[in-house]
Amino acid sequence: MTTENPAGTAIVFACDEAYFFLARGLVLSLLAAGFSDGVGRLVLIDIGCGPESLDWMKEHGVEVVEIPPGLIPANVEAVIRPVHRALVVRPHLPALLPQFEHFVWLDCDVWVQDLDFMRIMSHAANAAPDAVMLAPTISHYNIFFYQNIETILRMQRSWYSAGYEPKFAEEMAVQPQLSAGVFAMRRGSPIWRLWACQIEHVFPIVAQRDPSLLHMAEQAALNVVVYRFGNYIRLDPIFNFYCNGGGALRLQSGKVVASAMLPLREIGIVHLGGWSAVRHFYIERKLLYRSGEYLTDAERERIAA
What is the pTM of this model? Predict the structure, then answer.
């Protein structure tokens, strides 16, 4: 599915009802940072939101789309849970949203302090139209980076060993893991097709070897593509700061900064990675958008349980 004259940028995210409260924080943070239709369009890929949640999104200027039958290959659909659709749909954004030329993906568990990432990604798209722009998952901004490199390597080995042969898995495991949680790419990039093919290849393998790692297989597939072909631009990880790697601090001013080194730097995009396992830490450290003040009483009670 294509259009003759796709134009403009789509900021795309996906969520179900369970993560709607985080996606709401993302939208509110973008609007508070000055996002408008002149910057791009917000698009939610609905993978199971309730009617009231979808109404809220539309009222706040978000276009809502669903994944049509057949977009995700059948052999991938056969091995995933509904929540995984937010992962495997990503290489298919040009087909799903033919009206756009440039795509910025944001995981629904991020929120934005600085809209400058849009300017940076736009410049990168013009300078290298075939490349993908993305940041390392763990970086020098994270406390975890300085504590035990072997732990990081062991974790990455497990991700690649689930889908690839041992020699290649080891080659990939020693590379900095690039995050698919925040990325930007133009519609004409060959990476879309290569990524989709890699997902179609590796998901059935991971499902057989270790289905508990299916949530990492799509990102591993993207890393395989970009390291094989080298067609990528590194984004400063201050614009995809994984808070579960440590080093995020909320100041009395309300800003969230990277605190592992001096000078302190304001985090551009705060990523609440591994939400289910780390949520109590995030709540205690007030790392949600507006320290979580935007949440309803029912949401606060649910996430604190």
Answer: 0.95
